Amino acid sequence: GAVVSQHPSRVICKSGTSVKIECRSLDFQATTMFWYRQFPKKSLMLMATSNEGSKATYEQGVEKDKFLINHASLTLSTLTVTSAHPEDSSFYICSAREPLMPTILGETQYFGPGTRLLVL
Amino acid sequence: GDSVTQMEGPVTLSEEAFLTINCTYTATGYPSLFWYVQYPGEGLQLLLKATKADDKGSNKGFEATYRKETTSFHLEKGSVQVSDSAVYFCALSVHNDMRFGAGTRLTVKP
To answer: Average per-residue pLDDT in chain B?
Structure first.
């Protein structure tokens, strides 16, 4: 089946630094990727939708300048947390949609294993 | 807005016990409904889905029926195994946007 990878799986950084998280679709081309954030014991929250070659669409309440998303190719999207602070500590999950699969909504999303960010 | 509410965990069961994880939803449109499972250290995997009222999704012994009248999509399994230990997420999708429940951690003991 389709595989999505994320790198790194875990990152610890100092407050004020920037952190880049990569999301790759390994065996298919993903025109659309999604970035989610998961708080402890909370739902996955959609942060933004990333479309290859165009600007990401951010959900209400998500700071565009804080969470920079770049979808430069059909297999790679990156999320950069700029000037990270302790409140940005969370579990970030990406997913990728394979456009050639059946169009039942949601079924074609494949999820990465997630990246745990800890900001000290 | 669209949302999903699922029962809080954690849920701890003995092997071969019956499992029910409740899930209800609120949606402005006509959603598709999903259950995803997340095993330790892995990404979310689609477990089953239903796209219209009265549809029953099933996979690996798990079942869920799309109940429009009660806006529910409860997950059931007749006899759980230790290998079913994971976090289960109920989700809906309307207009390509997915909304997830908080997740329910299931632990099955031998």
So the answer is: 92
Q: Is A114 on the interface with B (CB under 8 A)?
A: yes
Reduce the DSSP state of residue A112 to 3 states and report it: coil
What tens digit of pLDDT does each residue of B6-51 get? 988 899 999 999 999 999 999 988 898 999 998 886 778 889 999 8
Please name the amino acid found at residue B29.
G
Rounded distance between C-alpha atoms, residue B34 and residue B28, angstroms:
17
How far apart CA B7 and CA B100 sit, in angstroms, is 12
B83 touches chain A (CB under 8 A): no
User: Chain A closest CA to B78's CA: distance in Å?
Assistant: 25
Cα distances from B72 to residues A12, A57, B53, B67, B91, in angstroms, run: 40, 30, 10, 5, 11
DSSP chain B: --EEEE----EEEETT--EEE-EEEE-SS--EEEEEEE-TTS-EEEEEEE-STT-EEEETTEEEE-BTTTTB--EEESS--GGG-EEEEEEEEETTEEEE---EEEEEE-
User: B17: exposed, middle or buried (C-beta count within 10 Å: 0-12, 13-18, 19+)?
Assistant: middle
Neighbours of A120 (CB within 10 A): 10
Contact A106 B44 (CB under 8 A): no
CA distances from B94 to A112, B26, B33, B45 (A): 22, 11, 9, 19
